[in-house]
Amino acid sequence: MASKPFIALATTVLFFSLIAVNHFGKPFHGKLGEMEIVPITDAVGPESVAFHPLGDGPYVGISDGRIIKWQPNEHRWISFGITSPNRNHIAVVLSGDKTGMLLKYEQESKQITVLLTNLSFPNGVALSQDGSFLVFAETTKCRILRYWLSTPKAGNLETLAQLPGFPDNIKRSPRGGFWVAIHSRRCKVLSWILSYSKLGNALIWVLPVDVITKAYSVMSKYLGSGLALRISEEGVVLETLELESGNKMSSISEMQEKDDHLWMGSINMPFLGVYRL
């Protein structure tokens, strides 16, 4: 069993590392105004947002493993499906896990092909406008990667954009490029902590994952900030948005643009945020 001094040290390191994730770093420019709130009862974390091609939705995945669908005429959510409630993303980042993969599923043959391995927390996938490449976030390394599907570059992997924080989901914007949700900022202190995977694994060994996750969620509500970037297909920043100080939304996990509205999800909040462009 770990000694009390070691537990105290681990707790202190965890505390300051979580503050570093959310609080430090230079502010961005480009403010968003008032936000409409679509509340979710008895759950938190509308992490991802999707719409049916025919216009139904949005559909969101929440922390208890359910997928729920918004009924605009009735102003309520209904259950749509069930997935896994496990969300140990903090442990994945702290441990320096590199077991992530990029997979391809063929609908006709129902075959799964492994395209890439040894990825550090791959997150979100979006196709380019012409379908020649896809992009996804490598969360732990704070970057967006591009994987070519066609053209002479097919099969090549390259860094499309290096980001100032930890990206979550990525979605194509109808105005061009991609929206990248920045879950939280990264600073030199956190970069140092993450450069030593043994330290992160020690924290996970000493403190239960649910304790780490709960501590992070609580602190994010007070220290988190909502950030999102719209980048071009060449990785150039087209738009940078930051929620105003005191806004209820923190730790953005999704930015979905539809019909001149931005739908924003967060793993920590019990609601979906909506902005009119």
Automatic annotation (TrEMBL):
Span of domain Strictosidine synthase conserved region: 87-151
GO molecular function: hydrolase activity
Signal peptide (from-to): 1-25
SUPFAM superfamilies to which the protein is assigned, alphabetical: Calcium-dependent phosphotriesterase
Pfam families per UniProt: SSL_N, Str_synth
Isomerase is among the record's keywords: no
Keywords: Glycoprotein, Signal, Vacuole
GO cellular component, one term: endomembrane system
Family: Belongs to the strictosidine synthase family.
Protein name, per record: Strictosidine synthase conserved region domain-containing protein
